[in-house]
Amino acid sequence: MHKWLSVLALMIFSPLVWAVSPYVQGDKVAAGDIQAVMGETENKLTKAGFNVIGKYAPVGLPGYGVVVVTDNAMLGTIKSLGGANIVGAAIRIGVKADGSVSYMNPDYWYRAYFRTGFKVAERTVKALQAKLAKALGARGTFGGDVAKTDLSEYQYMFGMESFESDKNLLIEHLTFEDAIKAIQDNLARGTGKTSKVYEVIMPDKKVAVFGVAMNDAKEGEGWWVKAVGADNIAALPYEIYVVGPKVDHLFARYRIALGWPAVGMGQFMRIVEAPYIIQDTLAQAAGGAPAGK
User: With a threshold of 0.85, does the pTM exceed it?
Assistant: First the structure.
């Protein structure tokens, strides 16, 4: 009898054991102006050996901010993996004016980003997780649960886009260098009401990633983030990435779902136009015309 009860318990709880959440709740810092909260968080990260490459307060989300850093060991792993794995170069930390701090859970996001390459990167991912916990604290995870084995081929629902969707492509330039210049110039001039949050460029591998703030008061990130939940602020900013002459983004029915896996279909239906609005905005930043529906 005890044997069968043990087997039953294992069947019930094993999915929970193998599930992982997208965010880690860190220790609080002093509440105050969002710039001050970001500054205190930045100091903690710098002292821990991270390289701060960007920060911003998203338009339409008062009291929320994001600090973006890199880690040298993770950059080395990404360089060895190459290609679209460059999307994992930026490590995102979200803050709120009340002093709350959260950050992207490496064990979650890198399983999705690296896919079959995760095994190669796993030691680096674990080291990064420990480094973030030491710097910012680790008071539990939140944001939903996804089975670890599902993240390498993640889809919110069957038939929806995955990491390698053909809808990711924004534009193809003649060369990698042309792509980088177009993005840098467009973000600097605010094309499509965008601006640069960060950039990581590996010219020898011909890969790069840019964090993009979408600053339009009506069509920027504020409206759809409010609809699905601003507590997941460490999902931002959205990124565009370059592999050779091609500029891509992660199509939003994948990227938003990955950042908000616990959100129900009803909430997603409230932002049904967001994927194409994001695609159009990022296409302009990438140097092309709006992608269109």
Answer: yes
